[in-house]
Amino acid sequence: MRFRPSFQIKLFIYLVVLFVTLFSIVGVYYFHDIERQLYEDMGVRAKVQAEEIALIPSLITAVENKDVSAINRLMRNISAHSDASYMVIGDGKAMHLFHSIYADRVGKALVGDDNVDVLAGKSSTTVRLGGIGLSLRSKAPILNAQGHVIGIVSVGYLTSHINTLTVEKAIRILVAAATLLLALFTFSWFFSRSIKKQMFSLEPREIGLLVRQQKALMESIYEGVIAIDGQSRIAVINQAAKKLLNLDAPSRELRGKPLEEVIAPVSFFDRQVMLEKDIHDEICLFNNLTVVASRVRIMLEDQLQGWVITFRDCSDIDRLSIQLSQVQRYADNLRVMRHEQLNWTATLAGLLHMGRYDEAIRYIEAQSESAQELLDFVSARFCSPRLCGLLLGKYARAREKGVELAFDPACELTHLPPTLSETELMSVIGNLLDNAIEATLLRGENAGPVEVYIVSTHADLVIEVADQGVGIAPERREQIFSLGVTSKREGDHGLGLHLVASYVSHAGGTIEVSDNSPTGSVFSVFIPNGLPVHSTGTTGKA
């Protein structure tokens, strides 16, 4: 298995290589720069010394008289106090009169072939190979009172001496650089370890995989999800949240935006409330959309980093809850019909067991006639078999509770509106019947029947359910269709009429609530059929 260094090791190595490369480049540059600067400084120093020595009157006199002993005494004193590698005095013919190192060269010619300009009265600074080696030297002419060149002063620094000074300076800089490099290596190690710790000891490829997994996970969530930082700026938002909030901008444009620019401010996002506690399943209003929202804090090492907000459309949850409740009602209807059938069968079996065959026949005929009459009416008047089953079940359930369910003879449903599905129609009628039966039961034994009128014309589908129950106060008629509003104390209530209103509104219809005579309420639903009107019909209450 091939060894893969960790991110910390790789980052440390990269930083070390970078620092070493940078210091190497800078070190070479500064070494050559120091060498150049030293040559310039030494050249200027040699020139100044040569020109000043050439102006000494006693030296001019001694050179003019070629007094070697006087020159020797004077120059020995001067060279002893100078840092120059050597000093040389020559006459007007470029012959040695003094040499600070080799005294035996007096009387010999100066070496280096750089005396022409000096004898012409000009100072010069050159790097030449002289009698004691390669050196940087400066030469100045010695002039007499008449301005004639009578000698030469040469002050030189050996290049080996200059190089030694350069190396000494470079070593001092190198020591400082090595110390700095060591400090940088230490910093690199702790820096890479800190980065590794902040990444939860994950490798970059693992972080990349996690990011892709997180993105896929966020988009697979049906609920809307928004993550915000400590300053309430959006960090992450999924497609479901954008869809629920009707946001068309790309996610990258929404990141970094303040939350209040995306969702209108509500108390759910009050910072003081957010800091106090997390909230689960709270009903809120996000941009005119009623949602069930939760808010959870993001903590890292006991420090608040932000919040994750999840929300879903409240109507979806309500619809699912109501549909489940409707299924329970269907099951109850089947149970009622089953019990009624069992009672009917038990009665028939008892009569047969006692040998009362004539009474059994009359009982069968009576039951069959009543049941068949209702069955024939419902199946002939309504085009939906599922709706027929619902109405028969509601009829049996109402009778079991002692409430009469009366169908208007004019009932007729030949087709369904294109904007209302069969399931939605069953939910609308079923909930209206359930509420009417419950209102009738609240009235007591003297309550009249629940009357049903369902007819589909070319223009509208009309549904009217009238009860003679306790009625609805006029001031409450606008509230009864809101979620959770109910007059019942038990059961899964406060959802039915809300769902009815939702379905009817979605289908483009209207609901009217009026008083029944002498008591009770009438619920009238009008849903457009979307068909051309050929004739005008009358509609009435059952």
Shape: rod-shaped
> Quick check: average pLDDT?
80
Taking pLDDT < 50 over at least 5 consecutive residues as the criterion, the unreliable ranges are 533-542
Helix fraction, binned, reads: 40-55%
User: How many helices in DSSP terms?
Assistant: 14
Q: What is the CA-atom radius of gyration, in angstroms?
A: 55 Å
Task: State the separation between the terminal residues, measured CA to CA.
Answer: 85 Å
Q: Structural class of the secondary structure composition? A: alpha+beta
Order of helices and strands: HHHEEHEEEHHEEHHHEEEHHHEHEEHEE
Please state how the strands of the largest beta sheet are arranged side by side. Answer: 2-1-5-4-3
Number of strands: 15
Largest sheet, in brief, is: 5 strands, antiparallel
Strand content: 15-25%
